[in-house]
């Protein structure tokens, strides 16, 4: 059952973050109505994406656990993702955030491509049927779209997001890939209660 009207979760992610990638790969199955919102991890309280000791091994182990194909790390990683996020912001404006972002994630972490390379962005666009000329024009509007990206990042901070990936639903924040499962479980419980109440009301005798 879908979430109740007005209770749509928001999914905040950075295209350069591998944990966001793993969460994104499962989101359409567990939380298909989530709103995808690209943000700049560097603007969040816990800072940008870092290659901390053990980080790659932990992500690779999580990928195995989630049944995702082995990661191919882009070089360099972490890399510059600002322009990729600008295009993702444009894709969101035309209703293609999910399709473009999944394609870009896969170019980066399944294909090992650098998201700072415009050719990578064009390949991702082609994979989700976004015209290459639209991507070029979006990059020419980097200042305007970048401002929209920064506003989305500020909104995420205001909602309590500390790092990516994060899901926000009815004032609650669920961080990390595991947050997908926790929120999906909560929604299932909430929907079960709503269905039980509706059934009980339907059985009430007419006045």
Automatic annotation (TrEMBL):
InterPro entries found in the cross-reference section: DSBA-like_thioredoxin_dom, Thioredoxin-like_sf
A Pfam family this chain is assigned to: DSBA
Limits of the DSBA-like thioredoxin domain: 57-188
Stretches assigned to coiled coil: none
Name recorded for this polypeptide: DsbA family protein
